[in-house]
Design a protein that fits this description.
It is a multi-pass membrane protein. Its main location: membrane. It contains 16 helices and four strands. The protein is mainly α. Helix 1 packs parallel to helix 3. The longest helix is centred in the N-terminal third of the chain and has 29 residues. The protein is elongated and about 85 Å long.
Amino acid sequence: MLYVKKDTPMKLDTNLWQEIVVSITPGFAGIGSLVAGVASDRFGRKKMIVLSTIIFSIGAIICGAAFDRYILLVGRIFLGLAIGFASMIVPLYVSEASPANIRGQLVTGFQVFLLMFGFAAVPAIIQFIGFLFLPESPRWLYENVGEAESEEVLKKIYNNDSAWIEYEIEEIKQSHEAQVKAIAENGGNGFVLGRILTTPHIRKALLLGCALQMFQQLSGINTIMYYTGTIIKSAGVKDDQTTIWISVGTSGVNFLCTFLPFLIIEKAGRRMILLASMFGLIIALCLMGGAFLAINKDSAKTESIWLMPNSNTLKNTSELEHCSKFSNCDFCVTDDSCGFCAKTNQHSIGFCLPLPKEGSNINSTQGICAGNNATKDGMHYLPNGTEYEWVI
């Protein structure tokens, strides 16, 4: 968003449109995931994954070629639907069509391929080509085609190891029989959610899964990852290229740490790795929250706008009155309608002035940072020099 919002024809200069472009993808991912479960049961895991890669590639190409915000929005919707399909089906496929001894490692690797805009087509194309050579899920084949076809796939997965093949077939058979029995006890197929809620062990698994997802979202990790650039800028980093490289560092650590469970997941177990991750997340969020509190205390103070040079030219508007109430730079820039205005190289005191409803955050509507009076670093998110920005 640091660069896209500067693309004038794109017209993403308002916070509302930036928020729409960011949030539309996870929103449609939710819709896609709801459709994916039923579709994969009916048509097969492989077909739906191949379809998701096609939709993903189309969305990435549209985003990469977009020349206005509406086309970009369409591309982001396509990406959202594809993410919803993939997020639902790929881990399911991997868990059903991979050797048991490396299953945890393969599922963990699912999040490695996360890229932006046009580059997002690259992993989708790789996945599309790869799936042309991969079989259907043996569990789906057992339930919808036959045991012989399921066994043929398991022979490829386990390289004709009869012990493992027999083990997997028996596990699939028992799971299928339990599902058929549960359906029969409910008087037929019935409503899927109804069967889930009336089957104790499945209900428990559902509640645990939903709770894990809920707390993951409530921790704010997605907001932090989506708005890494904005957070870094708010800590006092002005240069966009520097911000991007710091963001790359954050994403790079996320990428590299994905490989750590590869080495330990089968030995340490899922629960231990989850607890360790949660502990690390708590520490990181506390550091970030504490850093922002410290930055607020260290932030430049705002002076009365009536002490500003040429203050007699100010128009006493409601916007000006609103912004003038903030006591420091941090409070000022937290409000989307206000910006902190300071003289070049002046980082201890400045003025909180209203920003235009649409347009640049460099110029205020009134005061010494209005129009051509504003210097490049006249209006900025936080003054340089705070000693706590490194914590973020």
